[in-house]
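Exercise 7.
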Amino acid sequence: MTKPEWSCLRDVKIIDLSQLLPGPHATSLLMQLGADVIKVEQPGAGDTARQLGPAVFAQFNRGKHSCALDLKSAAGRAAFLRLVREADAVVEGFRPGVMARLGLDYAALAEANPAIVLCSISGFGQTGPYAEHAGHDLNYLALAGYWSVPAQVEDKVSRPRARISDYAASGYAALALAVAVMSARQHGRGQHLDVSIHDAILSWTAHSAWAARGYEARPHDAPTVMPENDLFETGDGRHLALGILENKFWLNLREALGGEFAALRDDRFATRAGRQRHKTEVHGLLAGIFRTRTLAAWAEAFGALDIPFSPVLSAPELFADPHVQARGTIRHVPGEDTIALGFPVRFSLGLPAGGQHVAALGEHNAAHSCPPAPPPGGPAR
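Solution. The predicted structure, written as tokens, is:
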């Protein structure tokens, strides 16, 4: 793929041993910023994401090379260490202790290349009483207090629609890798990065959970519950999002709709403090108002108003949305029923479109002087 000439990552090489989301997403971000990524996969099956379908694997692995290596074999480990000698970083997502059992812990990698950065991404980190525990996104959210924070007048526990713990960890991993690699290039000494998915999401939830203490018996009273900052059902069974935080937006809403819905002009609701004192009444008022029209009618009514209103989009509506199309972050991949995402930050010096190729398992073994990959169905690690 074409690389940004200005990027400090344009000659950085990263070996990606990880699977599924956090590690592959972190290395994909760095690849989009100029790094080369060699994905090392187990022979036979490869990354577990391959088993979930081509589109799932492609989501985080476009543009990477693939080498199939049996790291339990002497030949596989030797080939891997040859890659390490020419690399800047290794990213792995095993449980703690697996790399040591393979003879490929940080000490072994640093012996081969003192400047190597090893980034270990695990559920609960390399230390602590939960370090060996199995887990996935929902587990980390549960243990990070995600559902301990009251958020709605009519609150309930429901699962998020995206794997936010994994994405939190991948973002921190990518940032830490960029800093550690650049530091190693400057000083000649690498280091071991211990990325805990639980720590990552905890850094997002901790402040709100701290503020929620003492409201367990009366969550409705928590300051995080705001009656005018919520999702509301419309007359046709759709939903809209009203994001009122600043009082000026409530005043704009009152001005726009108060003629038809006089209760909005109640002086008790004129300030945020007043609305917080009357949460149930304010929320019920808004819920009743929004059920009087369809989502399309409300979108038209709010179109010219300075109010943080948004329709809750369906999947087809999302990809047809004019702002999404104008920004160009999402690209349809020619010849495939799938999409690719560009890096979600615009650089004034420009970033090229990411590599489109999705490597077959072991496709680049020869290019990186690795033993030939076994045929499909061959021995797995």
